[in-house]
Write a structure and sequence with these properties.
By secondary structure, this protein is of the alpha+beta class. It has 2 domains: 107 residues, SH3 type barrels; 287 residues, Fumarylacetoacetate hydrolase, domain 2 (Alpha-Beta Complex). 17% of the residues lie in helices and 27% in strands. The strands form 7 sheets. Strands 6, 7, 8, 13, 14, 16, 17 and 22 form an 8-stranded mixed beta sheet that branches. Strands 9, 20, 21, 25, 26 and 27 form a 6-stranded mixed beta sheet that branches. The protein has a 5-stranded antiparallel beta sheet with strand order 4-3-2-1-5. Helix 6 packs across helix 9. It is globular. The termini are far apart. The structure holds calcium ion. The site of calcium ion has 7 residues, from loops. Calcium ion binds next to loops.
Length: 418
């Protein structure tokens, strides 16, 4: 499908992240006005609450944009999702009959502040990137035992904290924690000195389920995707993760990009999961292309410095799709709700320049990376700003995600000091 042209001319640039083909959903505010739902089109945001109030957008009898988050709309399901996309396309495309009626409801993005686009019901994070799991496993257990025996059969995950998910632009404070001593198993209480990023995608569950669902059904339940940075305290993690997995090391913050890119916008970029080394049990079989060809990058800007790319990778490097992860999540009968967020797991590629964490890029600190300024990094320093970017490239247009950024602020003084 080629570029779909809009009368909002900035949306027609082949490299602009928000053409009419995209229509990503967010929550914004401007001036003294309260946060409300909007859709990005070029350099503008269409105020959906105002457009609904004016009667220009009406999907059934109920009002869907009274609240400043997308959960109520998501819960309506695929037919309503498609109806809104169709209506927005008709309103914003070149030659739209209602252009004059809708123009007053556009706000310049530069005048807007972006907020959490949805209320995160629950957050689950996976460990489903083959290259990442192999790299990390090699570092901790040796290359022969890199992948645990279950890895090729299930997407390994853990239940995280919805309360720690923050929108792009939120500062992230370096945590304190228990850290294993260098000599023996006596821990000490200290600020994290191995603070790290994880470049991931987040899948957002749109419609509820109550019981096991298939991979195809799981795909139907997914509303859209965001970029996700799962901030990780590696020294805290190394001490705490036996035997129940990560806990406080992953609870400081997880940042997401402010725009939900819908599954509909990503449809032309679907691709297959990689070849299976071991056949999956039938309930997790692939049933069509469920990954997406999305170029991803992570960059670092030291305090007062310039932004520099650390790594580039692609979402198609995942071993398991979000649909497989969601299907697996429900196998026990676990109910899923609108607004549930599933982190893909760190997305690394096969090459050294494609690694989605500093743990891998610096190989556990053994091989620090050198920035253009000459500074080196094994892990994050205070004042570092990290930015994830993602885009799918179509025929004359780009589907962008907007940036997912966050700055590391210094640890507090010892919160337990007497
Ligand atoms: Ca993670």
């Amino acid at each position: 499908m080629p570029l779909n042209k809009s009368w909002v001319t900035s949306a027609n640039d082949a490299h602009h992240p928000f053409p009419l083909n995209n229509l990503p959903y967010g929550v914004f505010s401007d001036g003294d006005a309260p946060p409300r739902c909007g859709v990005a089109i070029g350099d503008m945001i269409l105020d959906l609450q105002a457009a609904e109030t004016a009667g220009i957008i009406q999907l059934g009898s109920e009002r869907l944009f009274e609240m400043p988050f997308w959960n109520e709309f998501m819960e309506e399901g695929p037919a309503v999702w498609a109806a809104l996309r169709e209506r927005l396309t008709a309103l914003l495309q070149v030659g739209a009959r209602d252009q004059k009626r809708i123009e007053p409801f556009l706000v310049h993005t530069k005048d807007a502040e972006l907020h959490m686009p949805f209320m995160v019901s629950e957050f689950t994070d996976y460990y489903a990137g083959r290259h990442h799991a192999t790299n990390v496993g090699s570092m901790f257990r040796g290359p022969e035992n890199a992948l645990p025996p279950n890895w090729l059969h299930i997407p390994i995950g853990y239940n995280g904290r919805a309360s720690s998910v923050v929108v792009s632009g939120t500062d992230v404070r370096r945590p304190w924690g228990q850290i294993k001593g260098a000599e023996d198993d006596t821990p000490r209480w200290a600020p994290c000195s191995r603070f790290d990023i994880e470049l991931e995608m987040g899948a957002i569950v749109g419609t509820p389920s109550d019981g096991p669902i298939t991979v195809q059904e799981a795909d139907d339940h997914i509303f859209g995707y965001v970029l996700l940075n799962d901030w990780s305290a590696r020294d805290i993690q190394a001490w705490e993760y036996h035997p129940l997995g990560p806990f406080q090391s992953k609870a400081t913050a997880t940042s997401i990009s402010p725009w939900i890119v819908t599954k509909a916008a990503l449809e032309p970029f679907r691709c297959n999961t990689p070849a299976r080394e071991v056949e999956l049990l039938e309930h997790l079989w692939d049933c069509g292309p469920m990954l997406y060809d999305i170029d991803l990058s992570v960059s670092l800007r030291p305090e007062g410095g310039t932004d520099e790319i650390l790594a580039r990778t692609n979402y198609r490097e995942m071993y398991y799709s979000a649909a497989q992860q969601l299907a697996h999540h429900t196998t026990s009968g676990c109910p899923m709700n609108p607004g549930d967020l599933l982190g893909s797991g760190t997305i690394s590629g096969p090459d050294k320049t494609q690694r989605g964490s500093l743990l891998e890029l610096s190989w556990g600190g053994q091989d620090p990376i050198t920035l253009a300024s000459g500074e080196t990094r094994s892990f994050l320093e205070d004042g570092d700003t990290l930015t994830l970017r993602g885009e799918a490239r179509g025929d004359g247009y780009t589907i962008g995600f907007g940036e997912c950024t966050g700055t590391v602020t210094p640890a507090l003084d010892d919160p337990y000091a007497r």
